[in-house]
Amino acid sequence: MEMNRHAFAWLPGFLMIAAVASLAVGLLDAPARPYALLSAAGLLIIAFVALIVAAVRGEHVDRYRELAESLPFGLWLADKAGRFTHFSDSYLRMLGMTLAQARRGEFLERMPVEDRDRFVAAWQRRSPGEPFEAGYRVTGADGKAYSVVSHGIALRDGSGKCTGWIGFSLDVTARQRAAEQMEFLAELSRVLSLTLNPAITLERTAALMVPRVSDWYAVDLLSDEGEVERVLMVHADPQQTRAARGLLACAPRELTLPSGAPLVIATGRPQVYANFPISAIAQLDQGDPQQVFLDSLKGTGIVVPLVARERTIGALTFLWCGRTRPIDADETLFAYLIARRVAIAYDNAQLYEREHQVADFLQRASLPERLPQLPGMAIGAHYAPGASEAEIGGDWYDAFQLPNGRLAISVGDVAGKGLPAAATMNSVRLTMRGAAFEGLTPSAVMTRVNNYLLNDKPTMVTAVFGIVDAVGHTFTCSIAGHPLPLILNGAGDAASPRPVSPPLGLFPESTYPEQSLDFGIGSLLVLYTDGLVEDDRDLPGAEAALLEVARAAQRRSESNAARFIAEQIVGDAPNDDVAVLTIACASEPLRELDLTLPAEPASGRLFRQALQRLCNAVGLPDERIAALQVAAGEAIMNSIEHAYGVRGGFVRLRGSLEDGKLIVEVSDRGRWRTPRSDDRGRGLEIMSGLVGDVTIDRSQDGTVVRLGTSLNGAV
C-alpha cells in the first residue's frame, strides 16, 4: 500500500495543473464580460480542485501550496466565518502587502470605492451552496490598476458542513484593457462618422479623450506654410481647459524643435516621455505668470503622428499629470490606433470640405449673374445649399431673354450630389440656353437635353423649361419629372400645368408635350425644386403651405418673391438644396416705361417688345403702333451705332402719356459720330414722316430723341 500511495502521489498535482490549465484557457477564450467568466465547466474544475485539497492533507499540504504558488493566479483560503486566512505569495507581491495586512482586509483599501462596495456586498451575500464570484479593480504596488476576477467555492467535511472557502483571483487586466480599448475605438469611429466638418471632427474627439484616455489632450496640425499649429488642448476640468487656451499661442511651431509635436511631425515617429518636456507644451518668456500653470502639467506623455494617405498631417499629444509609472507598449499601440482613426477622419473631412467648396463655387458661378429686366415684371430668384452636413446638389434656376424679346426660364435638379452633380447641372443649363437661342420650342429644348444626357452624361435630371410671352400674357412650358410650376392669377386663384413627362436622361423615346397657361396682369409664377416641399415628407401639406406663402408674397408685392417664399418655408439652412424662381406681373397695365439696356444690336428687340406692351396698355391703334415702332427703332439703332465707340454704353427708352399723346424718348450719354457714307443720316426724315412730332436735343451730356403720337388718330 505504501508503494502504491507514493506511486500515485503525483496524481493530485497533475490533475490540478490540468484543471487550472483548462480553466485558464476557458477564461481567456470567454466573452468580453470578465466578471461573468464562471461557466459550468469552471465550477466543476473548482469543485474538483477542492476535492483534491480535501484529499491531500498533512504531508501533502506543503506540496499543494508549492504547486499553487506556481500557478498563474492568486490562490486564497477563508475559514467558515468568512475570514481570509491565506493568500498566495504572487497575489501579495502584486499588492505589495504582507499576509497579515491582507488578512486584515487592507487589500480592500486599494480598490475604488464602487468596486470595494460591490466586492464586500458579494462576499457578505455568499452562500455555502453557491459559488462566490466577484470582479474588481485594485491598485498594485507598482501603481498600476489591475482588473481581477475572483472565484471561490465552499469546502465541506464528511457531514456536508461548510469548513471554509477556497478560491483564486485571476489577473484579467490585459483582457479587460483590450476589451475597453476596443469599445473606445468603436465609439471613436462612430463619433467620427457623424460629421464631415474638419473642426467639429477634432472637437468631438477631444470630448472622448479626456478623462477616458489621458488627463490632457492636444492636437497639432501642419499648416500649408510648413509650421506646426496647435488647434486644440483640453482637460477634463473646464477651468484647466480655459487656462490652457492661453498657452495655444505659445505652442512650439518650428519643425526643427527637438521634442514634442514638431519632432513627431517632422520624423513621423511617436515619442514617449517619462517626464514630458514643458517646452513641448508651450514656450514662455522668463517670468511669464503662466509658468506656474505650465509647471503643474508635469507628468508622463506620448505624442503620436497623424498619418493619412502616407502624409503626416499633424500629431496628437496625450499627457498624464503627476504620473510616474512609465508608458508601456500597450498604451503606445492604443494611442497609435486612435491617431490612425482621427487622421483618416480629419483628412476625409478636409477633402470633402475642399470638394464642397469647389462644388459650391461652381454651383453659384453657374447660376445667372444678373436676371433680365422686364418692364412691369419683377423677376426673383433664390438658391440655398443644403445644411452643412449635406453635399452640394445640382439644383439650378435660369432666366434669359430670347432674340424675339420673350423670356426663357428653367428650373431643375440633377440626381446625385457634390462636384459631379454641379458640373452636370451647368452642362444641362447651358444646353437648354443654346437650344432656346436656336429658336426651338420648349418641347424641342427638352428633347435636345434628353439626347445629350443619354449620349454624354448618363444621369437623371428633372426640369421645367418654359417661355413667358409678356405681350400675349402666356406661359408655355414642358415638364420632365419635376414639381409642377404654380401660377396665381390676379385674384390669387392657383393653376398648375399637367401632365408631367418622365425625367430627362432615362428613355430615348420620351416626349415632352407643351402646355400653355394664362399669365395676365397681377399674376405670380413660381418654379422651384423639390427641396422646397419635400423637407418634412408631408408633400400635400407642404404644397398647401407653399400656396399660402405664395399668396402672401403676391399680396405684399415682394420685390423678390422667390427669396420670401424660400425663407418662409425652409429658412436659411434647408436639409436639401433649394432653388426658386418667380415672375410677378404688375397689377396694373404697363402705362409708363423706363428701360435701360446696353447699346448693342440685340437690345433693339427687347426695346421693341417693351414698347409694344406700352402701346397695347394705353390703347394706341394698331397702325400707329407699327409706325411708332419703326420710328423708335430708328432712334434706338442710331444711338447704338453713333453714340458710342468701342467702349460701349447704354441706351434709355422712356414712355408715358402727356395731354392725350404717347411720348417716347430715346436717350444716350455718348457723342454722335459722323455717318459713314453720304446716303446715311436720313433718320430724322424717316421718323418725322412716321410720327410727325419729332425733336432731337444734342448736348455734351448726350442726345435725346423725343417722339410723340396722338391717341385719337391725329398725327
Q: Residue ranges: pLDDT <50 for 5 or more in a row?
A: 1-48, 54-61
Level-1 CATH class name of the largest domain: Alpha Beta
**What number of domains?**
4
Helix content: 25-40%
Task: Summarize this structure briefly.
The chain has 715 residues and is α+β, with helices and mostly antiparallel strands. The chain is built from 20 helices and 25 strands.
Structural notes for this entry:
The chain has 715 residues and is of the alpha+beta class. It folds into 4 domains: 2-171, Beta-Lactamase; 178-357, 2-Layer Sandwich (Beta-Lactamase); 369-585, PPM-type phosphatase domain (Phosphatase 2c, domain 1); 593-710, Heat Shock Protein 90 (2-Layer Sandwich). The protein is 38% helix and 25% strand. The strands form 5 sheets. The protein has a 5-stranded antiparallel β-sheet with strand order 2-1-5-4-3, sandwiched between helices. It starts with a helix and ends in a 5-residue tail after the last strand. Mean pLDDT is 82; it is low at 1-48 and 54-61.
What are the salient characteristics of this protein?
alpha+beta, 5-stranded antiparallel β-sheet, Beta-Lactamase, 20 helices, 4 domains, elongated, 715 residues, 38% helix, Phosphatase 2c, domain 1
Which SSEs are present, and which pair or pack?
Blueprint lengths: L1 H6 L2 H19 L11 H16 L5 H9 L4 E6 L4 E4 L1 H7 L3 H5 L9 H12 L7 E8 L5 E12 L5 E10 L1 H20 L5 H12 L6 E7 L5 E8 L2 H8 L14 H8 L3 E3 L17 H5 L3 E10 L2 E11 L7 H38 L10 E8 L9 E8 L5 E8 L3 H20 L4 H15 L4 E9 L4 E7 L5 E3 L5 E2 L19 E4 L5 E5 L10 H18 L4 H9 L8 E8 L7 E6 L4 H16 L3 H22 L6 E9 L2 E8 L14 H9 L1 E7 L2 E9 L5
Helix pairs in contact: 2-3, 8-13, 9-13, 13-14, 14-15, 16-17, 18-19, 19-20
